[in-house]
Amino acid sequence: MICLLICLYHRKRERRPPNLPETWRARFIAYQKPKGEIKGFVTSLVDPTRYPLDKLLNIYWQRWEIEEGYGELKQAQLQSKVTLRSQFTEGVRQELWGVLIAYNLVRLEMVAIAKEAEVAPTRISFSAAISLIDTQLMWLALSPDGKLPAKLKQM
Fold first, then answer.
1. Among 17, 56, 120, 123, which residue has the fewest nearby CB atoms (within 10 Å)?
2. CA–CA separation, 100 vs 94, rounded Å?
């Protein structure tokens, strides 16, 4: 792991807002992932006593997991269409709750699949899971026999 104190400069003085300094200090943290590739990030939390490296990495990983969840939700589940249909506050809340409930239901199903396959839940692709569920629901909708509840349970 590498931790460097760096100094950043604003490239164009005429575009720099007057309340920002011409230079500022930051901390660059580089680390090696298990597969060998090197990743890094820059933070304004420069004091190593107040912000130890292990705590910064822990916070970074938590935030990264949250960002990945947002990405899955926006790109896979909502198909990069972030437009909400409702024109009223209560309708927007209801729509958001529906999106979040659906996301968590897919995640729960992924955990169940992972348990059955005896693999870590992180090995199951969210995009693949939601695509499979979507395809199954389309086939169920075309089913003429009227046994939708039983087929949903089987799915």
1. 17
2. 10
For the chain, the residue count is 155
Q: What tens digit of pLDDT does each residue of 55-106 get?
A: 888 888 888 888 888 888 887 888 777 677 888 899 989 988 998 998 999 8
Q: Match 């839940």 to its residue by tokens.
A: 121
Q: Pull the structure tokens for residue 17.
A: 């807002």
124, 110 Cβ separation under 8 angstroms: yes
Residue with tokens 């695509």: 131
Contact 59, 29 (CB under 8 A): no
Calculate what percentage of the chain has a pLDDT beyond 90.
Answer: 8
Give ∠ CA 27-33-34 in degrees, rounded to 5. 155
Listed residue (108, 104, 37) closest to 69, CA to CA:
104
